[in-house]
Amino acid sequence: MRSSISRISWVSAVNTIAYAKKEAREDAFAFGIAKGGRKKAIEIALSFKKMGTPIADIAEGTGVSIEELRRTLRSKIEKLNNWLDIIYKSIAAIWIFSDGCFC
After folding, report:
1. Are 83 and 70 in contact (CB under 8 A)?
2. Distance of alpha carbon 68 from alpha carbon 33, whole angstroms
3. What is the pLDDT of residues 14-55, one digit of tens each?
4. b/e for 23-38, b at 16 or more Cβ within 10 A?
């Protein structure tokens, strides 16, 4: 039979683990909310950039730094250029294999 001391330490350990899980869950939830909010702010900033709003005004209004906006824009441009490169190479390959005729 277990002594009362081991029961108390076992209950204490279980309570500590439950508390740690609760804290971790709350921290993860808060992190997810913050990350989602940041992502939404960047999406809004990109929409304003498409409308022609100056980048300094966008940064001030959204709370996203000018450098982060520029980095995001460069990343999107690089992805677009990569897709365009793939499309151009695909068209060239089709052209070559079809002997220059899209019949």
Report:
1. no
2. 19
3. 778 888 888 887 778 777 776 777 788 888 888 888 889 888
4. eeeeeeeeeeeeeeee
